[in-house]
């Protein structure tokens, strides 16, 4: 499988003034192969969304590179860069309420990309919008309605249609299902699966529902406080977590099975994710880690490969 | 420590809700949000109410708490009895306020449910002063103690802080401290962990279970997450379109699901058992419009086993055995397929 997108030590800091910086994403390296689905999990505040947005140029890069099909992308996008790359890389946003312009009709929202990136005539834009509305399970006559007339699940599908109508190669899905009911989640997941089959999409799937990420993804990446702590095949990471943080994350994920839940010891972790402003020295997880050693508080662990190159863990337990 | 535990007649459940109907007048017409809900909760037990948005879960518990604004809301029928005393339409029973004193409640979004201009300690102290006649100093001291019980570190210092200085998980702990301040016999938790990360969710669920063991209170947990249900619930009520469609012990509902909607919900979720890997089966369609609720079964339009009778008449309830209830025509003796054939076959059952 050839690499489609690669993040090389991608870093994004936010300046807060007074010499304080939010270390949202720090030196994250990740290769995403063609037609692969990589799931990205972690608590809120771990930098998942910032990573996704920086990958697409929606945030400027503080340092590091994004390589797309061998081409190094600019660290700060100009309007021309957006014009050039947006047709290939798209994003499905987390919040279906704030990511649709309330003053545009659904037809305008979905068709905007086509109007900007292709020379399609007004009629053919309309036709394609109608087709995409059908593909995502809505009606073509919804085109003239406004976003407020739709439910959360329907809006999420409008967001999906908007992202996919340009037939991009790479899509970042930022929590595409967390605002939806269980019955609708499955509809959206199956829709993404179908479209992946038909269009050969490559997806970065950001979510905090671990069961869903395992189900959807080929590989799973775990982030904590701005850095990547574990990466591997989705099933291996889920069923055999190596990093203590992944272990806790998986252990905290309640499963719809009362017998299993009763027999499972509580793995509730003490404390909360620390502020990314004052990042602790050493391993970022050390102060919450049940297996922390002295070395963890002083030295930052590097991502190292276990047994085969498929499994990467950043933890001193394995060095 | 259980509140008035000794007065409890063991035969009557702690809370008994019968045939509850709630409507709302809106510009678009009258919404029949709750259309006949029955359930019971026993002392020290956890009842989980599950269902998707708009099925009437929150309205049900809000009407028990007296939190339905009237108008536009209207409780048109039904009763809810706490230890045999009617609570609907009343503020107090046995000389005690229901809201805050007998029943405590925590909400989904702790950020917006707390007063941003009062310190956390003062907010927790308030019900103690109002309901139990504590002096301001005693109430504040008790508030600090309650924060400690909710496992907030440095409780004395934290009590003087304001909500914006707390994280989401800490605020939910403070909400719990407030809800249990007057030792209620029931704690209603309306989606208490939906806004939280799984790690923090695990902490909050553990805390609720610990407090339940200590105080013997009953918990009514509203959620749409079947994982949380599996972890917390003794009893489960599945709601759809304003009605309870299935009610039983957690094992009954998970391993011997009797209603097609419950089965549908489970099939729409990924299992983490590699032996049971199945395709996600979404429930097609959307819930019925409760401005004009269907004549028959609310789930009829989405049900893979719908028959003609489902469209015409609301299904009657059937008890599969003592405590396992399902509202579906398939349980009728003349049904063409036996419900056993649609039970979700689970290897571990």
Description:
The complex is a heterodimer of chains A (319) and B (349). The mean pLDDT of chain A is 87. Chain A has a domain at 3-79 and 168-181 and 199-318: 3-Layer(aba) Sandwich (Rossmann fold), CATH 3.40.50.300. Chain A has 319 residues and is α/β, with parallel strands linked by helices. Chain A starts with a strand and ends in a 6-residue tail after the last strand. Chain A has helices spanning 48-55, 79-85, 106-117, 122-135, 152-164, 182-199, 210-216, 234-239, 244-252, 258-263, 294-298, and strands at residues 3-15, 21-33, 37-41, 63-68, 71-72, 89-92, 170-174, 202-206, 219-224, 227-233, 304-306, 311-313. In chain A, 33% of the residues lie in helices and 23% in strands. With 349 residues, chain B is an alpha/beta fold. Chain B has two domains: 5-233, Rossmann fold (3-Layer(aba) Sandwich); 240-342, no CATH class. Chain B has eleven helices and 14 strands. Chain B has helices at residues 57-65, 110-113, 120-132, 136-149, 155-159, 168-179, 198-215, 226-232, 250-255, 260-267, 308-312; strands spanning 15-26, 29-41, 46-50, 73-82, 85-86, 92-93, 96-97, 103-106, 186-190, 218-223, 235-240, 243-249, 317-321, 324-327. In chain B, α3 (120-132) packs across α4. Classes of the chains: A alpha/beta (319), B alpha/beta (349). The A-B interface holds A 43-44, 151-153, 181-187, 189-190, 208, 210-212, 214-215, 235, 238-239, 248-249, 251-261, 266-269, 272-273 and B 52-53, 167, 169-170, 197-203, 205-206, 224-231, 233, 250-251, 254-255, 264-266, 268-274, 279-284, 286, 348.
Give a quick summary of the entry.
With 319 residues, chain A is α/β, with parallel strands linked by helices. Chain A has helices spanning 48-55, 79-85, 106-117, 122-135, 152-164, 182-199, 210-216, 234-239, 244-252, 258-263, 294-298, and strands spanning 3-15, 21-33, 37-41, 63-68, 71-72, 89-92, 170-174, 202-206, 219-224, 227-233, 304-306, 311-313.
